[in-house]
Specification:
Distance between the termini: 25 Å
Number of domains: 1
Largest sheet: 2 strands, antiparallel
Number of strands: 2
Order of helices and strands: HHHHHHHHHHHEEHHHH
Strand content: under 5%
Shape: globular
Radius of gyration: 21 Å
Number of helices: 15
Strand order of the largest sheet: 1-2
Structural class: mainly alpha
Mean pLDDT: 77
Oligomer: single chain
């Protein structure tokens, strides 16, 4: 720092920021990023469904989304190529589950059932994360967490209106549930290595996850058979024509690149449990957007059921013990400490 110090500067020595203050600010940043991620992810279905209805296969839309995002992130993949040697398992898992699995199942689901219903089914994931904590990591959970799971399942029964003989397409619901299972992998894998001295850079993990996801989806979706004429025209959003390339640009840049970057970094700054709670807002955002932009109206029981699903997911996640906790944590226990400066991006 060149230049002369101002007169009297020696009498105003900066006071070091305490660890608790840094942690508080870090949590604030993490929550803000998690909220941005929820908003970005929430708009993906609303932009994708018009493209699907215009004639694109759901898997082709997924491929365009992931391949486009992978191309945008390619410079970062080159920069972090050391991850291929140090964390190959993490990269493959993230690509298969958090990228290819979630997107393929979700987009296939919304081609058969309403966007709001697909998202509400997918957001059983926070309850499934709790199951991972209890049965795989073998860490205790609270009674409140179990109550949250029961509420989420009961709310889901209202969303799909089981009393009317499962009014929605059964395959569509199974695909949405598959997206929920893959989303568990997103939260769990996003947190891998965050406590290590040399945690993998989240931008590198996302970049290679997208590249691996694109490679897998290329084999599955066979994009060479895509009807490319759809992309040069327009798609109708509740009767309003919108350029297909505008919708695709939104899906790639906002609902994928921005969503994954903010989402993974938020998990690193918080925890899978806390980030999962905030991510539940994605279902609310997507449902409202589908209502306003696509004209997909939910019945009163479905709205109530959706609220119960989100409430149950919130209780389940906020009642899960923090990482490293030896005992159950009473409702909304302490978050784990943030990584030391320099270990996250």
């Amino acid at each position: 720092m060149g230049g002369d110090a101002p007169v009297g500067a020696c009498h105003h020595v900066p006071v070091p920021t305490s660890a608790s203050t840094r942690n508080h600010r870090g949590r604030g940043v993490g929550l803000s990023l998690a909220l941005l991620s929820a908003v970005a992810f929430g708009g993906s279905g609303v932009a994708a469904k018009p493209l699907i209805e215009a004639g694109l296969d759901p898997l082709h839309v997924v491929w365009l989304r992931v391949a486009g995002a992978a191309l945008v992130m390619l410079p970062l993949a080159v920069r972090h190529r050391g991850l291929l040697r140090s964390r190959p398992g993490l990269l493959v898992g993230f690509g298969l589950l958090a990228v290819a699995g979630v997107q393929a199942c979700y987009f296939a689901a919304i081609s058969r059932i309403p966007v709001g219903v697909a998202l509400l089914v997918e957001y059983l994931a926070p309850a499934l994360v709790l199951g991972w904590v209890r049965f795989v990591q073998r860490r205790p959970v609270t009674r409140a967490a179990a109550v949250g799971v029961v509420l989420a399942v009961g709310g889901l029964a209202c969303v799909v209106e089981v009393w009317s003989g499962l009014g929605f397409d059964a395959l569509g619901l199974l695909l949405a549930l598959g997206a929920a299972c893959c989303q568990v992998g997103y939260f769990v894998l996003s947190d891998q290595g965050s406590d290590a001295d040399e945690a993998p850079d989240p931008l590198g993990v996302i970049s290679y996850g997208l590249l691996i996801g694109a490679a897998v989806l290329t084999l599955v979706a066979r994009p060479w058979s895509m009807d490319r004429s759809v992309l040069t025209g327009s798609a109708e959003m509740d009767g309003t024509p919108v350029a297909a390339l505008v919708l695709l640009g939104w899906i790639v840049l906002v609902a994928t690149v921005a969503a994954y970057v903010t989402g993974v970094v938020s998990v690193r700054r918080l925890s899978p449990q806390v980030a999962g709670v905030v991510a539940c807002l994605e279902a609310v955002i997507a449902t409202v957007l589908a209502w306003v932009l696509l004209g997909e109206h939910l019945s009163a029981p479905q709205i109530v059921g959706g609220a119960v699903v989100l409430a149950g997911a919130f209780i389940a996640q906020s009642s899960a013990p923090a990482k490293g906790s030896a005992k159950p944590v009473a409702g909304g226990g302490p978050e784990r400490e943030l990584s030391t400066p320099g270990t996250t991006a």
